[in-house]
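hey all, quick one before standup. I had two proteins in the batch that finished overnight and I want to keep them in one place so we stop losing track of which output belongs to which input. First protein below, input sequence then C-alpha cells straight from the run.
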Amino acid sequence: MNNSIYPCLWFDNLAKEAARFYCSIFNNSKIISENSFISKFELEGKAIIALNGGPMFKINPSISLFVTCQTEGEIKNLYDKLMEGGGAMMALDKYPWSEKYAWVVDKYGMTWQLILRELPEGQQKIKVSFLFVGDLYGKAHDAIKHYSTIFPNSHIDSMEFYHEGEAQPEGNLKFGLFSLNKEFFAAMDGPGNHDFEFNEGVSITVECETQTEIDHYWTKLTEGGAESQCGWLKDKFGVSWQIVPTVLGTLMNDPAKAGKVMEAFMKTKKFDIEKLLQAV
C-alpha cells in the first residue's frame, strides 16, 4: 500500500502511549518504529505518525480520522474504546446519512468519525477528513480542486452538495471524497459557530524520494500560504503540511546520525537532501 502521504498527530509527551493505545483497539495494526521524538504506526494499513511536540499546539476537530466500519459489532467496539476517557461530539446513533454514525474525541484529544457502511473495493478503511469552518466555510470544494492539481494520481471520487431550499447555502459541500497520490481523503463544510481552525495539531506529511519532489510540493503548497521551519508549511487554507525526504526516517532511527541530522535540519525551512547527507 502506498503510504507516502499520512497524518502526523501532535502530542505533549504522550506520542508513544497514544500510538500503542490506537494499535490495541484497531485490527491489522502495528508499531513501525519508535524513538523519543516520534512513533510511526499503522492502523488497518494506514500509516500515522505520533509526534512529541510539547504543549505548543493541540489537536482539534478541524482534521479527524474517518473510519468505515462494516459491522455493528465493529463500530460499537471502536466507539466504546475511543470513548474511554473521551467524549462524544455526536453520539453513536442513526442519522440521515447512516444507520450508525458517531463523532468522538478520545482521551488524547484526537477526533474520530465512525460510520457503518460497505467499504468499496480499493478504498482505504481510515481516511483523513478536513472540516472547513468559520472564515473557511464554503471553501471545501475549492480546497479539493486545489490539492488535486498538485498531487499526481489524484481523483475526485464523489461530491455531495447542499441544494436550494436546504438549511445551508446552495453549492457548499456536505461531503466529498477524493484521493491524492492514491491516498484517500474526505472533506466537508461545517456550518455553525466553531472555536477551532486548522493548526499544527494535525498535519499532513508528504514523503519525497527526490529534491525535485520536495521543491514541487513546497512551491505549490506555500502559494498563498506560509513557510515554517523544519519542512513545515501552511497552505492558503491554513492546513499544515510537512514535506520531508524519505531518507529522513532512516537517518533519524540511527543513533549515531540522528543528532547531527536534527542539528542540520533545525536551521532550515525547506529540506535539502544533499545538506542532510553531508551532515553525517
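OK second protein, same deal, sequence then C-alpha cells:
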Amino acid sequence: MKPVLVPLEHVDYYFPLMSGYLDKAIKHNRCTSWTIPELWMACRKGDVFMFVDDYQNPRNVMVVEFPIYANERVLYIALMGGQGGPDIDWDETMKNVHKIKENNGCKRVISHLRDGWFRRFKTKKLTTLCEIEVP
C-alpha cells in the first residue's frame, strides 16, 4: 500500500467511502474518543490528515497527526482501517509511511498499537501510556 494524501478539498468525497473502516478502527482503538462526525470535521479542518491506498478504488485508510512528542515532531498514526488482506505488503507500506515522516520534518513514527499489530511491525516501546483514575 502506498498511502496517498487526500487533499482537504477532496475529504468530503473520500471520507464517506472510508467511514465504515474508520468507525471500526475507532471502536477497536483504546486511545481515542473520536466519533465519526468529529473525525470528519478534523480531517476537513486539517487538524488530522487522511491517506488512502488508491484514489480510484480506495480500500484502506490511515489517519495521521503531526504532534510534538517528547520535544520532537512525530508522525502519529491515529487510525488505520480497511480491507487489508494478503495483497498488502506491510514492509513497503511502512517504508512509504517513513517517507511521509521525512517529508514532514518528523523524527519518528509512533502509534498506539493493538496487540495484533505487533505481529506486523518492528517496534520499539517508547513508554507505557496509562490513564490514571481517581479512586
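Flagging for whoever picks this up: Residues 90 and 120 are 7 Å apart (CA to CA). The longest strand covers residues 72-82.
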